[in-house]
C-alpha cells in the first residue's frame, strides 16, 4: 500500500509552524509519546515522537540543515501511515520488536529563514565535537541516552548530483559513514551497509538507477561519523532532484517507503543476510553533474565560428536569475532537460524599446521572439506580461553577450536556417515552432 503524503508539506520550504499541527495530532495518538527535548538557540521547541516498545531502537532526525526539508515531510508521512487504522495489523507486528524515535526538525531556526546553519550561523552537522550549538548538544545527548541500534541521518543534497555511470540525477544518495580515518568496518558499520543494500534492492526497479553512494572519507566533525563511532549503525539518506519535480516529492515518497521497509527489516533482521559487497556496488554520486537545461551542438557565429554545448542552471529556490553555468564539451554531463540542436545558432537577440504600453500574451510574445527580440528596454511599468513565460526588462540593453560565456544571464534565442527555432528565457526553453501565431 502506498504511503499517502500528509497535506500541506509539498513546499520547497517547511517551517516549524508548518508541521506543528501534524506533530500535535500524531502526538495525541495513544500509541505515541510526544516529548519536548529542548529549545533551539532562538527558543523554538525541538520535539520527538516515540512509538513502539521493542528492544531494537531506531532513531531518525531531519532538517538539521534548515534548508533541507524533504525528509521532514517523509517521516511525518511514515508516522501517519504506521498509525492509520488500516495499518493496525502491520504495526502490531512491529511495535513489540522496535522502538522508533523521530526528531522531525532539529534546526527550526534555520528552517524559519531557509538557511543551512542554525541561528548562530553554525553548521550543526559540523558541531558534533565542539557541541557549541544547543541543537547539536541536544542530538548528541539524545543519541547517548536513547542508545539506538540504528540511526537515520536525513538530509537534502544539491539537485546537480548525478549517479556515476548513467547520468541520472541522484534522487537518493546513501552512505554508511566511517567512524575513523582508516574507514574501518566493524559489525555496526557492516550492518548499516547491509541495510542500505537491502533498501536499494527493495526499491522499484526503475528507481534504483536514481540511487548513488557518497564517498566515505572520514569527517571528524560530522554527526554521522561520530555517532557511528558510538557503535550506532548510522545511515545517511540524502534527497536529491528528479525531472519535473522541483519540490522533491519523488524523493519524499522514496524516503518514506525506504524508512518503512527499514523498520520491517530491522524488526525481523532480514537485512543481515545481505552481502555487504552489494553496498559497494551502488555507484558513487558525482556533484555538479546535472544541469537544469543542457543544450548540445550549438553553433556560435564568430571569426571563426565554433560549436559548443551549454549548461544552464536555474534559480529554483531564490529570486535570482538563471545563468549559463558552463560552455564547451559537456559530454560527461546530463540535464534535467536536454536538447540536441544539430548545429543551430546562438543569437543574443536584440532589445525591444518600450515607448508605449504593451500587453503580452503568448501569441504576441512569441511574435516578438521570432522577430529577434530577446529582452525589453525602458520603463518596466509600460509592460504587462500575461504570457506563460518570463520577461527581462532593463534600463539599458544587455551588453557583451554576443558570445556566450559562463555566468551570463540565460536569455537568448536559437536560430536554424535564419529562423528562430526557440528561446531561452531565464533558463527556460521555449520551442517557438510549437506556439501558435
UniProtKB/TrEMBL annotation:
Residue ranges occupied by any Peptidase M14 domain in the UniProt entry: 8-266
SUPFAM superfamilies given in the database record: Zn-dependent exopeptidases
One GO process term, biological-process aspect: proteolysis
The protein's required cofactors: Zn(2+)
Active-site positions on this chain: 238 (proton donor/acceptor)
PROSITE patterns linked to this entry: PEPTIDASE_M14
GO CC entries: extracellular space
MF (Gene Ontology): metallocarboxypeptidase activity; zinc ion binding
Alphabetically ordered keywords of this record: Hydrolase, Metalloprotease, Protease, Zinc
Protein family (similarity comment): Belongs to the peptidase M14 family.
UniProt protein name: M14 family peptidase
Annotated source species: Simiduia agarivorans (strain DSM 21679 / JCM 13881 / BCRC 17597 / SA1)
Classification lineage: Bacteria, Pseudomonadati, Pseudomonadota, Gammaproteobacteria, Cellvibrionales
